């Protein structure tokens, strides 16, 4: 047997056992690697500022934890506490209130009465209670799992940042690809992922803050609902509606018609139109100008839309990162293939 065949067999065997060993951590390692690629410019800035790779990696990890994981952790913890303290009587009161609202709706909702009366026949308060308790248990389990995964992501993210340059150089030597091709692929993937990541963060923070401030004046927990709106805004088109529509319906049911109209108009005009259409592009442009000076990568908004939707449908929560990453990697490969095709055509002439 030739030595290269024996080495290939050893490599395949070791790769298989490495997969079995690290399979439970593959998802968090992938997420950490993609986040490291997306935020490499921030880590480079910290490294130049403090002249220390360890300090840069630590500050980058701390910033990621504060901006990304801490708000979601707060939301899940609060939601878990609320659901665990949910009393069955409160569900009964909600059912009675809905019965009264549909039986004697406001004048502007009278046209819905024939369609909604029959829907009450299928409501079973016992099943609602059981489902609520089941949801509470599921949220509690997910919260515990999320805390564990978030911690692991931060740990792997730190090591990816601290040893990033070494890993990249090693991969360039191992992969059977020219230095130019590997550099182009890494640059394109990093640039596109950075644009997508910063867009997600900017959108969530901007729209979540606007919604949280508005509902805080209405007596609600502005921090909690601002975080909820921020993550809901990651769902294109329908994300914001999932937040402000229940608020509007609840305020109408409570007789606070002015608040209902305000939250609907505020969400549509201020958040959806002004913030999302006009302010967000300016923020993204400024981010690109300061942090992505060497990048001219652009990803069509429609492509981002479908990649996030597909990612969420396929991978769940982490799909908002994996979807754009897979799409960006594919487009980078296409760009690399196009460049090499043009180069071959030029040489053949």
Quick overview:
This protein has 349 residues and is mainly alpha-helical.
- Report the span from N to C terminus: 44 Å
Strand runs, count: 0
Order of helices and strands: HHHHHHHHHHHHHH
Largest sheet: none
Number of domains: 1
Share of β-strand residues: under 5%
* Principal-axes shape call: elongated
Structural class: mainly alpha
Q: In DSSP terms, counting alpha (H) and pi (I) runs of 4 or more, how many helices?
A: 14
Mean pLDDT: 75
Approximate helicity band: over 70%
Determine Rg (CA atoms, Å).
25 Å
Pfam families: AI-2E_transport
Main location: membrane
Subcellular location: Membrane
Membrane topology: Multi-pass membrane protein
Outline the structure in words.
The structure is a single chain. The protein has 349 residues and is mainly α. The chain has one domain (29-348). It is 82% helix and 0% strand. The protein has 14 helices and no strands. It has helices at residues 3-22, 26-38, 40-50, 53-84, 88-103, 113-116, 125-162, 164-174, 179-216, 222-232, 241-253, 257-291, 301-315, 319-348.
